[in-house]
Write a structure and sequence with these properties.
Largest sheet: 7 strands, mixed
Number of helices: 19
Oligomer: single chain
Order of helices and strands: HHEHEHEHEEHEEHEHEHHHEEHHHHHHHH
Structural class: alpha/beta
Shape: globular
Strand content: 5-15%
Length: about 625
C-alpha cells in the first residue's frame, strides 16, 4: 500500500540549534532592555495617552497591550537560558538507574506502547516495523504493544503477524489515557515509550534517551516531534510562470537572486514544531519544567505508578473529608439522645471504615489522568511531588518522525484539543495556585496557560485599526511625536530580541499563526467556561477532502473589514474629510500587517498538496 508521504521517506531531521553562550548573553541583554522600555511604554499608555473622549475604545486596547506585555515577560523568562542535560552513556543494568537497587544484575526492560483507535493497519505496521529496528549497545528486553481501542480483528492479526503483543479492552473509558492505563496493568517494563499510531521511532531512540535515567530523579524524557511530511512548496519563479508565463518566471528568478530562495506553499499550516521543541521546551530544562507532549517520550514506570498511587490516596481522603462531617453531625445528635458517647465513637469508626471501603471501589487509580491533555496533566502531577523532586528532560535531538495535519479541518481539531485541554487545566485545576511546584515551574506553566488566553487581546489588535479607519476615533490622545517616541523603540527592540532568542528559526510565520489562531482560542475558552467537556477525537492521519472555508470566516472577515476600512479612509483623505495623516499612516501599516497575518490561514482553506512538486 502506498501513502502520500512515501516520497518524503528519505528526508533527514534538522539538527538541534547550536548553543552559543555569547548569543545567549546578547539575548539576555537586549531582552532586559526590551522589557524596561516596554514597561515605560505601558506606563506612558496608562498615564499620558488615553483618549478620555473614547474610553470605551481606549481602555480595552490598553488592557490588551498590558496583557500582551505580561505574555512577553513570561516568554522572555522561558527563553532566558539554555541548560541541556549532559548526555550520559546508556545504562547496562537497571541498578544504574536506581537510587537503592535491589538487584544489581537485572536487565533493563522497556515497553513500547502504540495506542490506536481507527488508524489504518498499514500505517500502524510501518510504525511497528520501525520499532522492531530499535537497537541498544547492551542486552535489553524490548516489548512492543499495540493498544487497540478499536477492537479490530485485523489489527490483532497484524500484531500476530509482526510478532508483537496485542492489548484491547471492553470499553474505551478515558480514551487514550485509559487505554494506556489498561496496558500498564498488563505489562511490566521498567520504562515505557509512548508513541502515536504514526510515530516512527529511530533505531537509536533508546540508546540516546535511557542514559538520562542514570539520574534516579529523572521521571521522563521528551524528544522533539518532527513532521517529515511538511509540504516543501514550489519555487517562486515556477509559481509566477504559471500565472504570468515567462515574464513571471524571469521576475521570480530575479527576486530569488536578490532575496534567496522563496518557496510558495511551504508548511502552509505552520506545523513545523522546531520553534516549540528546540526553543520553548528546550529552554525550560533550566527550570525543570519541560513538560511531556505524549508521543516520542519515555517514562520511568516507577514514577508514573507512584504518582498514580498518591493521587488515588489523595482522592479518597478528599472525598472522605467531604462526606464525613455531615455524617458525624447526624451521629452526634443520635448519640446525645441515647447518651452513649462510646457508642458514637465506635459507630464513627465503623462508619468511616465502611465509607472508605465504598469509596475505594468507586474511585479508580489512573496512572495517566483521564483528560484530553493527559500528557501535560501527568507532567504537572510529577513536577508537583516535592517529596520526590522528579525531573523532566527535553532531549534536543530528534529521535522519531511523525505525520502532520494535511488539511485545515484536521489542523483545527488538533489545535482546539491543545487549547481546550490547557485552558481546562488552568481554569479548573490550576497547579500554579497549589503547593508543589517551585516558582520557576509555576512561571513556565503560567507562560503556557497565558498564551492560550491570547485570543482575547488579539481580536482587539485586529479590530482596532478597523474601528479607527471607519470612525477616526483614536484609542490614544493623539498620534504625536510622543506616541512614536514610546512605541517605536519598544517594537524595534522586541523584534531584535525575538530574532536573537529564536536564532535560526523564522519567527514571522509563528507570530502570524498565533495571531490568526484567535477563533479557535476563543471557542476553546467558551467551551471550558460553559463546563463542556473537550472531546477526544483522534487526529486523522490522511488528508480530509472538502470545503473548509467556513473554518476561516472570522479571519476572512477581518481581512474584508480591514480592506474596506483602508478604502474608506483613503477616499476620505482624498476628499478632505479624513485629516489626520499620522493616524492614517499608522493604521494603514497596522492594517496591512493584520491582513498579511490573516491571509496565510485563509489561503490554507483552499490549499491542496502538489503531488508533482518542482525541485
Amino acid at each position: 500500500m502506498s501513502f502520500y508521504f512515501d516520497r518524503f521517506e528519505t528526508r533527514k531531521p534538522p539538527a538541534p540549534l547550536v548553543y552559543s553562550a555569547w548569543r545567549e548573553l546578547l539575548y539576555q541583554f537586549v531582552a532586559t532592555i526590551t522589557l524596561v522600555v516596554g514597561a515605560w511604554y505601558i506606563w506612558w499608555r496608562w498615564t499620558h495617552s488615553l483618549n478620555y473622549d473614547a474610553l470605551w475604545f481606549a481602555i480595552p486596547l490598553v488592557l490588551a497591550e498590558t496583557f500582551a506585555y505580561i505574555g512577553l515577560v513570561l516568554f522572555t523568562a522561558n527563553l532566558w537560558k539554555t541548560k541541556d542535560y549532559p548526555k550520559q552513556p546508556p545504562p547496562v543494568r537497571l541498578s544504574e538507574t536506581q537510587e537503592n537497587p535491589l538487584d544489581h544484575d537485572q536487565l533493563i526492560s522497556v515497553d513500547v506502547f502504540y495506542p490506536t483507535y481507527n488508524e489504518e493497519e498499514e500505517l500502524v505496521k510501518l510504525s511497528i516495523l520501525d520499532a522492531k529496528k530499535l537497537h541498544y549497545p547492551h542486552p535489553i528486553q524490548i516489548n512492543i504493544h499495540v493498544l487497540d481501542d478499536g477492537k479490530r480483528k485485523t489489527m490483532q492479526a497484524l500484531a500476530a503477524e509482526l510478532g508483537v503483543n496485542y492489548i484491547t479492552r471492553n470499553n474505551n473509558m478515558g480514551f487514550k489515557a485509559g487505554n494506556m492505563r489498561n496496558a500498564m496493568e498488563q505489562t511490566h517494563g521498567d520504562f515505557i515509550v509512548i508513541c502515536d499510531a504514526d510515530t516512527r521511532i529511530f533505531p537509536t531512540f533508546l540508546e540516546n534517551t535511557l542514559g538520562y535515567f542514570r539520574d534516579p530523579k529523572v521521571a521522563w524524557v521528551q524528544t522533539p516531534q518532527w513532521f517529515f511530511d511538511l509540504p516543501e512548496g514550489k519555487n517562486l519563479r515556477f509559481v509566477m510562470k504559471k500565472y504570468l508565463w515567462y515574464p513571471g518566471f524571469a521576475l521570480g528568478w530575479l527576486i530569488e537572486k536578490c532575496c534567496g530562495p522563496v518557496m510558495i506553499g511551504q508548511d502552509p499550516f505552520v506545523n513545523d514544531p522546531q520553534m516549540f521543541y528546540d526553543v520553548i521546551q528546550r529552554r525550560r530544562n533550566w527550570a525543570n519544567a519541560s513538560f511531556c507532549c505524549g508521543a516520542g517520550s519515555v517514562h520511568r514506570r516507577e514514577a508514573i505508578m507512584e504518582a498514580a498511587l498518591k493521587a488515588y490516596s489523595h482522592s479518597i481522603d478528599t472525598v472522605i473529608d467531604e462526606v464525613m462531617p455531615d455524617i458525624s453531625k447526624a451521629l452526634s445528635k443520635v448519640a446525645k439522645k441515647l447518651e452513649k458517647k462510646e457508642a458514637e465513637d465506635r459507630l464513627q469508626e465503623r462508619l468511616r471504615e465502611a465509607v472508605t471501603s465504598q469509596i475505594i471501589h468507586e474511585i479508580e487509580m489512573t496512572p495517566y489522568k483521564f483528560h484530553v491533555s493527559e500528557d501535560i496533566y501527568t507532567s504537572i502531577i510529577l513536577h508537583s511531588d516535592h517529596d520526590r523532586d522528579w525531573k523532566s528532560v527535553l532531549h534536543p535531538g530528534v529521535e522519531c518522525k511523525m505525520l502532520s495535519p494535511q488539511d485545515l479541518q484536521t489542523w483545527t481539531v488538533q489545535r482546539f484539543k491543545y487549547a481546550g485541554g490547557s485552558l481546562d487545566i488552568c481554569l479548573n485545576d490550576n497547579p500554579v495556585f497549589k503547593p508543589g511546584l517551585n516558582w520557576r515551574q509555576k512561571l513556565m506553566y503560567t507562560s503556557t496557560f497565558w498564551s492560550y488566553f491570547g485570543g482575547i487581546w488579539n481580536i482587539l489588535f485586529l479590530l482596532s485599526p478597523v474601528i479607527y479607519l471607519f470612525t477616526q476615533i483614536a484609542p490614544i490622545a493623539s498620534f504625536s511625536v510622543e506616541f512614536y517616541k514610546h512605541i517605536f523603540p519598544f517594537l524595534v527592540l522586541n523584534e531584535l530580541a525575538t530574532m536573537l532568542g529564536t536564532w535560526g528559526i523564522a519567527g514571522f510565520k509563528s507570530k502570524a499563526s498565533y495571531l490568526s489562531f484567535f477563533p479557535v482560542n476563543l471557542r476553546a475558552l467558551w467551551t471550558v467556561l460553559r463546563k463542556k467537556q473537550i472531546k477526544f477525537p483522534t487526529t486523522p492521519k490522511e488528508r480530509q477532502e472538502g470545503n473548509f472555508f467556513h473554518l476561516v470566516i472570522p479571519q476572512f472577515l477581518v481581512i474584508v473589514l480591514t480592506i474596506a476600512g483602508l478604502a474608506y479612509a483613503g477616499y476620505g483623505y482624498h476628499q478632505g474629510t479624513f485629516t489626520n495623516l499620522n493616524g492614517l499612516l499608522t493604521n494603514i501599516f497596522w492594517g496591512f500587517n493584520n491582513i498579511l497575518a490573516m491571509s496565510g490561514l485563509v489561503l490554507t482553506a483552499f490549499w491542496k498538496p502538489d503531488e508533482l512538486a518542482v525541485e
